[in-house]
## 1
Amino acid sequence: MKKIAILGSTGSIGTQTLQIVRTNQDLEVTALAAGSNIDLLETQIREFHPSLVAVWGEEKAAELKIRTKDLDLKIVSGMDGLLEVAVQPEAELLVTAIVGMIGIRPTIAAMKAGKDIALANKETLVTAGHIIMPLARECQVQILPVDSEHSAIFQCLQGENKEQIKKILLTASGGPFRGRKKEELREVQVEDALKHPNWSMGRKITIDSATMVNKGLEMMEARWLFGVEPKDIQIVVQPKSIIHSMVEFVDGAVIAQLGTPDMKLPIQYALYYPDRRDLPGERLDFWKLNEITFEKPDMENFPGLSLAFDAAAGGGSLPTVYNAANERAVALFLERKIGFLEIPQIIRSCMEAHKVIKAPKVDEILSVEQEVYEMIESRW
Ligand code: NAD
Ligand code: MG
């Protein structure tokens, strides 16, 4: 039985990971970590029997301890707790399904402890890809992408020589506001932005899809995962999310991975790589599908995407600023304190105010994150 640990087990990716464990019956969950939903966490503990569980807040951890005192279980909290889950000796693979840069340190710790990483937590690669990728090689661990586009690219690259990639065609749905102009976007509400046309995901990434910042983050994620320059990553809008991404090779051949939009496929592929397993669910029916259409991304009305290319070009600590500013701006939008169009404006202001640190170390990345948070707090 392959043994896995999950950071972010109560979220969208976390619960779908557990659904795959439930269906297959040949994976063992040895540790779980979550933020605050201890009701769901308790249910997961009783179903999957991990021996170690981390809850972010101390109080919630204490409450969970009381509720589960009938079980042989260690409960930990805070960053130390996340790190303990990350390096737990039993686990062979760590699923990083947590949101934000909080994933950096546990991911590094897990790699140093020899764990393969099924990586959903894109913010870690965006901000610390220059540390994570060389470390993976040094520690001889695998980084298996869970993000659907990156899993698609990874699948297209099986048996291929990475040196022969000409470009990566990263597909995007365009989100719920595709086709709208800035004037129409000014007044959109949180509820509208939370309605993704194809995918059901956590709140932060759903807003990121509406602003196209998600595609910007994914461009930077792809750059590190596959060792390509941002200029060799082309964003292709394909509204139905049927083609999950493509790779063009030096001879002009384009290989694509297609499927119905279901995150369980990329999650399962990462868990069992290089094996494929049956996966119940809807299959592509090309007669029903009829056509697949393509559009250019609209960087004019969705400046969050072009700012990502600026962040990647500036390099160093600039992607951290892009990511941290976005994270806070999305939180303010969800709290209805700012409008939709202010999200990219805040990112731009923070990027303009920043003095880039080349090849930042983890401590520097985390202090840049704090500086950005403080700047946003003082101004908005
Ligand atoms: P989510 O908000 O649904 O879940 C986040 C999980 O992280 C929850 O279990 C939460 O409790 C946990 N968490 C948050 N803060 C924590 C903390 N301080 N300590 C411990 N646990 C904490 O998010 P999601 O949509 O599942 O996304 C997770 C990651 O996967 C993100 O980086 C996202 O960009 C990426 N991703 C998600 C999808 C998707 O379909 N949801 C697709 C591709 C990539
Ligand atoms: Mg994606």
Note: The two ends are 50 Å apart (CA to CA).
## 2
Amino acid sequence: MKLSFLSLVALATSIHAAPGDGDWAAAYAKAKAALPKLSTANKVGMVTGKGWQKGPCVGNVAAVAAIGFPDLCLQDGPLGVRYAQQVTAFPAGITTGSTWDTSLFYAFGNALGAEAKALGVHVQLGPVAGPLGKIPTGGRNWEGFSNDPYLSGVAMANSISGMQAAGVQACAKHLLGNEQERLRDTQSANIDDRTNHELYLWPFAEAVRANVSSVMCSYNKLNTTWACESKALLTDLLKDELDFQGYVVSDWNAQHTTVGSALAGMDMSMPGDNFGDNKFLWGTALTNALSSNQIPMSRVDDMVTRILAAWYLVGQDTNYPKVTGWTSWNGGKGGPNVQGDHKTLARKMARDGIVLLKNTDGALPLKKPASLAVIGSDSIVNPQGPNACVDRGCNTGTLAMGWGSGTADFPYLIAPLDAIKAQAAKDGTTVTSSPNDTPSSGASAASAAATALVFINSDAGEGYITVEGNAGDRINLDPWHNGNALVAAVAAANKKTIVVIHSVGPLLLESILSSPNVIAIVWAGLPGQESGNALVDILYGSTSPSGKLPYTIAKQASDYGTSVINGDDSYPEGLFIDYRRFDKNGIAPRYEFGFGLSYTTFAYSGLTISPLSTAPGSTTPAPGGPKGLYDVLATVTATITNNGTVAGAEVAQLYIGLPGSAPASPPKQLRGFSKVFLEVGAKATVSFPLRRKDLSFWDTGKKMWVLPSGSFSVMVGASSRDLRLTGTLA
Ligand code: BGC
């Protein structure tokens, strides 16, 4: 199908999900009408989890027959329905983020939401914006989309809109400052107010603006108070400043007190007890605290009203499927097949999330090579099966998701080797396989082949599982299983060595790049079930690569300026994480934030910058913050032309530098992006609407967003360091 020029423009401007379609006023009216029908026991039952493994889902609260409220089912996670068996295992958040594709963010949320609903899940526990990913070795960064708050925010808003349109409640997690797995239950994240607003809270504000039903408070402390006990966080920031209408659910056992959590603004306790010890901080203890007036009934009424309103908001009060009991501890058999045709979407996401880092002399796409060597344990599926390790807690065979609660069971996993063999059979290519990480075997396979494809990886996950010495967070930024040695041996044996990397986050590539025989590097992220198929689409050029890095790849670990801390973290780097730091300190990255090659080339031209509107914005509260914060004050446009030789998609990026009148700020910050698919010779106008918030800084003294006066630098380009068009906005 050919898209008209007009529809391309429309496509290119739909970056922000509209403030969610949900109607909170109508939902609240229903919730308030239902409230008087509830006894105190009903109310306490609705806010207290039944206890770990006391129901079919990872979280369950009690039904109230009088109002048709069901046993509520809360289930992980961000990339698929956990503990079910015939569900789609989508690419992880970080690979979804690498697509920079707003419509894919929505389509993904919608498909995940449809599967969750079909299984009777009411609350699907994702997406993730915390950790944001300030620490490159952080164990759970891969569950989220990017360490840039703007990209993360757009992905949060659109995936939430998709999920909730499908009928499931989304849960934005983990609020806030859970940036590492080490000491996650005790560490205090001490984040100053400006840094918090401009980085960590930002994507949650976008989630709230998209009408997210629920928010999960995190395990750690924020500014010395437990996140789930922090009134400053849950009430002042989230519910008052951001006007969040839904409910706050605790992370599993992140609640610490009966009264403190309630008064701080927590609304639902999960899993209820402490992972099966039958000791409940709410339940009877909450009833007692109500009787002794330690907690006012109005607070519990507010909790219940919020839970009910969220349930009504997404229409779960009519014809919602029943939970069919598919989790293992419930004696479940995995549940019905709810995948529909989502494998097509999963493949597209995985393919469009692949980032081509290096491609010397058009080494890729492959052109029917006479012979290929496919090397590395990462090229095949774990011989014990893709789900052999509980919660993917091992790194055996090809890596397609990290480990922990943010996983799902693979319905199948397409191995790179198998997909390559299928293509090779069509091309008449001979394939030699060395599916292990032993350098000598890799070298002997490579020496006999025209081209060598070597697979390496790096894994991470949640801290309750330790894999090969990595207790959630990664020990370092090197490939696992001695991947550098494997690549070195293969490259020494073959002048056309192509490296494919599956990774949870950045790796140091200096060793690999030191070999001139490494002619291409394909960054395949965490692709989910369609791994091999998506990779073949790119390797053989049926699709031109269009992913861009959602973080920076540095030359050395110290360049990031952040690492896992063995105690409280005072966030001394402030705003200067990832590219913001590299820019400020003049550090040359290896591959910068936003970087990614294509098989074609794009020209940038015709920058236009509309005048800045300075009309004062409305201070009326609205989900996401005062309404006027989201007024569009200026619009930047540019023309992108495919001036290369094959069709392809480009992610045009807009960066803004604040005027000198603002307090010390990052030299540039992402404030718009647009992905356009262009046939050879075609062009499209991309349009970047700039909202007041996109041009403001958080004034700590005034406690508000302030639009600085002076001239803003406007930079449009293909990455954060490949800026093709510049101008100013005064
Ligand atoms: C994780 C959450 C998850 C919950 C329920 C916790 O350990 O931090 O992300 O939703 O468990 O499984």
Note: The chain is about 25% helix and 20% strand.
